[in-house]
Amino acid sequence: MITMKSLRRESALFSMALAALFALAGTPAHAQASARCDAQLSESLVDYGRMTRGQLLERQPDPARTSLGKRLVTLTAVCAERTAMALSFQGAAADDTGFRFAANDRFTLRVVQAQLDGKPVRLAASHADATGAAPSSFLRPGDRMSPMDGGGLAQGQRLTVQLEIEPFVGTAATRVAAESTWEGAGRFEVLGR
User: Fold this and answer.
1) Using one digit for the tens of pLDDT, what is the confidence trace for 18-37?
2) Three-state DSSP class for 165?
3) What is the DSSP string of 68-125?
4) The CATH fold of domain 2-192
5) Which of 35, 99, 132, 165 has its Cβ near the most Cβ atoms within 10 Å?
6) Is the whole-model pTM more than 0.70?
């Protein structure tokens, strides 16, 4: 679950926390994995601290929306044997490039780097391979990204992926009279093939 406490008036301070709670019932894992693989997320809470509306609006990438900032998390999957793995994020889609955040806003997930058994690999979405589209570093709704080497799908036992989370809100959403909560939900899945 991704939770944010929103702001009051421009001079009021507010705190925001992006809580990525990816719980697997009965285990300490923070990401769902197949029966042969275990997965962990580096942190389940990313704290955006306290700021004024004015400070938040300074981060504006464009006039229509405001970025709450980029944060990094690391997902590690360890499998019992060498296998081809696929990573996905299961959450409500806001559009074809991001996931639902707050009432009408979104957050994006971008792969910063990936390693398979300690060696750098490229992650490619399964639909990009099928359509011949250029690979994207963004993990989008419906994507399953797999490690690729020069010859195609790569196999290994340990996949480590550094991901960048960036939530966006429309500037109208920053105008609130009282404290409110902004949320998004989802979970990472690592599947062995």
Assistant:
1) 333 332 222 333 455 555 78
2) strand
3) ---EEEEEEEEEEEEEEEEEEEEE-BSSSS-EEETTTEEEEEEEEEEEETTEE-EEEE
4) Immunoglobulin-like (2.60.40)
5) 99
6) yes
